């Protein structure tokens, strides 16, 4: 999971400083990356009967929904998506990693589960 988180943070760093023409394609790539990452995590939670899975899955739905909302609006008005990325997304996903993903990682470690 750490590699996937690093890839995500690299994409966020890249989009924060990209040229205007690259913004929407990078934003879409971030959404696709996030969708794949969340799917992987949800499969792990299901496979190993993680007891807090529903809270984690609900947060995934909310975060992905927000990303898709801002992307859709950025197609019409790019500054809308840019403000989301620059002033909101990084902290939101960092909080998710520090709280919910750390909780999942601890559960896996405590149960001697390696992925």
TrEMBL record:
Residues 1-97 form the Hemerythrin-like domain. The keyword Metal-binding applies. It holds the Pfam family Hemerythrin. Gene3D superfamilies: Hemerythrin-like. Keywords: Iron, Metal-binding. GO terms for molecular function: metal ion binding. The keyword Iron applies. PROSITE patterns: HEMERYTHRINS. Belongs to the hemerythrin family. This is Hemerythrin-like metal-binding protein.
């Amino acid at each position: 999971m750490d590699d996937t988180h690093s890839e995500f943070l690299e994409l966020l760093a890249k989009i924060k400083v990209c040229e205007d023409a690259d913004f929407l394609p990078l934003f879409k790539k971030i959404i696709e990356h996030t969708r794949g990452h969340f799917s992987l995590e949800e499969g792990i939670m299901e496979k190993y009967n993680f007891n807090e899975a529903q809270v984690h899955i609900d947060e995934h739905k909310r975060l992905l929904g927000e990303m898709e909302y801002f992307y859709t609006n950025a197609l019409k008005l790019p500054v809308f998506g840019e403000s989301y990325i620059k002033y909101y997304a990084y902290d939101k996903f960092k909080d998710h990693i520090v709280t919910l993903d750390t909780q999942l990682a601890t559960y896996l470690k405590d149960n001697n589960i390696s992925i």
